[in-house]
């Protein structure tokens, strides 16, 4: 099994920044993509960003392009999401997810692609 633990959420004013982290532990696959999703109250969980195992490929939802940056440190089994210029509409619980495997360049973007999920971290952006 793989455990994912997010951290770094909190309350920030509009225009501010936060950096989320997600550490994987347990029986991590040889290679796996990692992604971020979010879920606002009353809304479905949605894709935010993904990074391939190699770190070469990334993909962002339109909502975060130009403001969010995903990165990873495979030596630490950790993925990061740097969020700048935050808006009130970014308020949500942010979830980290990992695949069970995949090649070095895979960037999955849908919930069924992921096998492991963290417990979520709350991000609240005040206006």
Explain what the structure shows:
The protein is mostly beta strands. Helix content is 0%, strand content 48%. Strands 2, 4, 5, 6, 9, 10 and 11 form a seven-stranded mixed beta sheet that branches. Strands 1-3-8-7 form a four-stranded antiparallel beta sheet, with no helix packed on it. It is globular. The mean pLDDT is 95.
Strand content: over 45%
Q: From the structure provided, what is the oligomeric state, counting identical versus distinct chains?
A: single chain
Structural class: mainly beta
Question: What is the number of strand segments?
Answer: 11
Task: Please state the CA-atom Rg, rounded to the nearest Å.
Answer: 14 Å
Mean pLDDT score, rounded? 95
The main β sheet shows up as: 7 strands, mixed
What's the short story on this structure?
By secondary structure, the chain is an all-beta fold. The chain is 0% helix and 48% strand.
Task: Name the features.
48% strand; mainly beta; seven-stranded mixed sheet; single chain; 11 strands; 127 residues; globular; four-stranded antiparallel sheet
Itemize the secondary structure elements and their pairings:
Layout: E1 2-7, E2 10-13, E3 18-26, E4 34-39, E5 46-51, E6 58-60, E7 68-73, E8 78-83, E9 92-98, E10 116-117, E11 121-126
């Amino acid at each position: 099994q793989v455990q994912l633990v997010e951290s770094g959420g909190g309350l920030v004013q509009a225009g501010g920044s936060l950096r989320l982290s997600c550490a994987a532990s347990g029986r991590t696959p040889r290679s796996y993509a990692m992604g971020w999703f979010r879920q606002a109250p009353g809304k479905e969980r949605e894709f935010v960003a993904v990074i391939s195992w190699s770190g070469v490929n990334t993909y962002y939802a339109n909502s975060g392009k130009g403001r969010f940056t995903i990165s990873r440190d495979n030596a630490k089994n950790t993925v990061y999401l740097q969020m700048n210029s935050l808006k009130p509409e970014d308020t949500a619980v942010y979830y980290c997810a990992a695949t069970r495997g995949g090649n070095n360049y895979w960037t999955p973007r849908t919930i069924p692609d992921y096998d492991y999920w963290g417990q979520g971290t709350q991000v609240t952006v005040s206006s």
